[in-house]
Each structure stands twice: as structure tokens, then as C-alpha cells.
């Protein structure tokens, strides 16, 4: 469109043109004044960025298991931090914690876990007691998710139970906080939650697993010391480790609880 | 006598039926609806627990917006790290597809503490992991004791600058630590 034609159109409709310019100016300034709904102008991120809360149906064919590679754990305590935030665990209580085993030259074993290992192990009283260290390693602890749990057997109100897909959960509405399960658990993973006033324990992040995500601590572990997967799935990492690792051990095997938490490269000293 | 025993029997039966009815009705009222759906417990709790909101996402969650950093980190020694480990859970940053707050990225002293939570030497730390004594490391590298870690090591790819510097100065043979 050349200049002449444009000029003609403007000339013929000069009145309308000015009218439109004024309306546009007023309209534009109004747009700046009125706060627009965030849906129109807010920064909309992609779908993936929002955590979807659609749950998958229970996978009854799966045999979920948790593995901890003791030789890979560096005792940074990030698992504990992630766990606390993910599950709203009150300060001073732990669903998962990291213990440090130190063996000195006299084969004396020392175990410490300051703040559950959450804030690291620098300058603990242990450093002054022990002069020469023969061996030291970290052992993360969490719910063993036993196949034959003693905690569910003793619950008088059936508030704790094993789900069809193999997770031991605590129904917070039914729990009367009698503390019987806390005594029964051989691994000491249960506690009375100070906020809910009911028994509480690690759930292997059941709410995440059902949404197809890894437990929060597994996700947070920087060295991959924590592994989670399905033992019935030949493609999973845990399946490969289960069928190849030489030093694979569970805690307190002789109790017959059949824990589903396996430790790789675990030393005999650990109980 | 006979008539009386019959009456007693009927009375007993009525009481028995009454008790059974009371138990049945009582169970109906007292027990939660989903009791016994999967076993002797409240079946609804399983889905209640499963529906609990997540707070942490995965690195793929972050990737959907921060592709560049994701790629940088994915090819570095820090590739196994979760983004939310150093920053914060994603729910504090994004809600319903919208950014609600700035993600914290720690600086100076806090940053040193964060780096050292993994890289500080200490009893029990495995030997095949890069560990340093912080002050000694700063002295050895001939930098100020107040230096923060990211002045030499870019946090998402710690060896990026070091490898590059070694390449251009050719002071040392380039060691690929990836």
C-alpha cells in the first residue's frame, strides 16, 4: 500500500481515525490501571512444573524394596532434610536418620548420630574420645517395611496395617497413640508425632510412589546410596543388585520379620 | 410348668435375637464404611495417604523451565544431584503452573556450609569422594581465606572453569574429572 492511498483513507475517515486513536489511548491506559486476572497475564509455566496429584492404581504385582549402599553414603544428611520437609516431621523427631559407626584400634565400636545426622558430623564429642580410627562408615536407617511386621500385630485398634501392595501405614484417624507398636518395632523407627499426637513412621513416601515418583530421600541422595525399586521388575536397578551383590544383608534377620530394606556392603557390627 | 418353659425359651430367643441385631446395627453405625475393604482396617486411608500432596519434584520438573542449567549440570560431576537439594522444594517456587516465589540460591557463608556438608573431610567419609579441608584448600590454592566456593567452582558444573583455565594456561595437563 503506497503512501498516497494511505493518505486518502486517512483523509476520508479523519474523524473516525481520531476517534479511534482517543479510544485506544483511554483503553490502553485503563488496561494498565485495572489489575488483570493472573490467568491472562501471569507467568504460566509448563504443565510439568506443577506437581500433579493424580495417583496410579495400586501395583499389586510389584515387590517394592529399598536398598542402602553403605559404602556410598557420605553422611551429608540431605536425606533427613528432604524427609523432614516432605513429610512435615516435627523438629527433633526423625522418620529417617543416619548413624555413624566408628571402630578404633582396640576394636571398640562407637555409634553416634548427632541431630539424626541432619546437620553433619563435624566436631562431635566422639572426635575427642577416639584417637585412632580403624574404620568408620555411615548407616542410614529408616522403616524396614517388614513382610511380617510385629507392629501391625500388636495394634489394638487396627490403625496400622499392611496395604495390599506391601506398605506398612499408620491410619492417623484411628490411632489412639497407645505406643504399643513403638515397643514392638525391633528397628526403633516408630515414634509419637508431637503434632498429630499419633504414632508415625517412614512410609517410603507412599504418596510419591503411588504418583510414580521416587521417595524424597532417594531423590535427594547426592551419591545414590539410597535406591528404591521393584524386585519383580528385571529392568530395575534393585533387581540387578539383588541378583549380583555379594554383601547384601538385612538387619536382625533372625527375628523373622523379613524386612524389605536391604543393605549393600554392610559391616557385621551394625545392628 | 411346661407352658412356662416355652415362654422362657421364647423370651431367651428374643433376647438373643435382640443382642445379635444390636451388634449388627452397632457395627454398621460404628465402623467406617470402608472397613474390611482390603483387610481388617479402614481401606479409605490408603487413598487418603496416597493423595497427600508432594513437596519435592524431580530434576525433570525443573528441566521444563530451566533447560540450560539442567544441561550444564547433566554433563558435570554434579549430575546426580537433585536441584531441590541446594535450592528448596518445588512447591515453594511453583504453584498451579505459576511462579509464586524466587528460588533461594545460597551465597557466601551459607554457600560454603552447603558445599562442605558433602565435601568437608571427616571421620567416616569414603575415600573415593572429593573431600577437602576447607582452610587448607584455600591456602593450597593461594586464594583469600574469605573466598566463597563459587568464585572458582561454578556450582552447577564445579570443574568447568578449572578445566578451562588449565586448558588456556597449559600450566598443567588437562585432567578430565568428569
Architecture overview:
The complex is a heterodimer of chains A (271) and B (178). Chain A has helices at 3-12, 14-33, 38-41, 78-87, 126-129, 150-154, 180-184, 206-209, 216-220, 237-242; strands at residues 64-69, 97-104, 109-112, 133-141, 160-162, 168-170, 191-192, 199-200, 226-230, 248-249, 261-264. Chain A is α+β, with helices and mostly antiparallel strands and 271 residues long. Chain A has 2 domains: 3-39; 52-96 and 141-271, 2-Layer Sandwich (Alpha-Beta Plaits), CATH 3.30.70.20. In chain A, the strands form 4 sheets. In chain A, strands 9-1-11-10 form a 4-stranded mixed sheet. Chain A is elongated. The model of chain B is unreliable at 174-178 (pLDDT under 50). Chain B is built from 8 helices and 2 strands. Chain B is elongated, with a radius of gyration of 33 Å. Chains A and B meet through helix 4, strand 2, strand 4, helix 8 and helix 9 of A and helix 2, helix 3, strand 1 and strand 2 of B.
Percent strand of chain A equals 15-25%
Radius of gyration of chain B: 33 Å
- What is the top-level CATH class of the largest domain in chain A? Alpha Beta
The order of strands across the largest sheet of chain B is 1-2
Structural class of chain B: mainly alpha
Largest sheet, spatial ordering of strands of chain A? 9-1-11-10
Number of discrete domains of chain B: 3
Low-confidence sequence ranges of chain B: 174-178
Largest sheet of chain A: 4 strands, mixed
Please write out the topology.
The complex is a heterodimer of chains A (271) and B (178).
Chain A: H1 3-12, H2 14-33, H3 38-41, E1 64-69, H4 78-87, E2 97-104, E3 109-112, H5 126-129, E4 133-141, H6 150-154, E5 160-162, E6 168-170, H7 180-184, E7 191-192, E8 199-200, H8 206-209, H9 216-220, E9 226-230, H10 237-242, E10 248-249, E11 261-264
Parallel strand pairs in A: 1-11
Antiparallel strand pairs in A: 1-9, 2-3, 2-4, 5-6, 7-8, 10-11
Chain B: H1 2-30, H2 44-50, H3 59-63, H4 67-74, H5 83-86, E1 94-95, E2 98-99, H6 108-119, H7 134-140, H8 160-169
Antiparallel strand pairs in B: 1-2
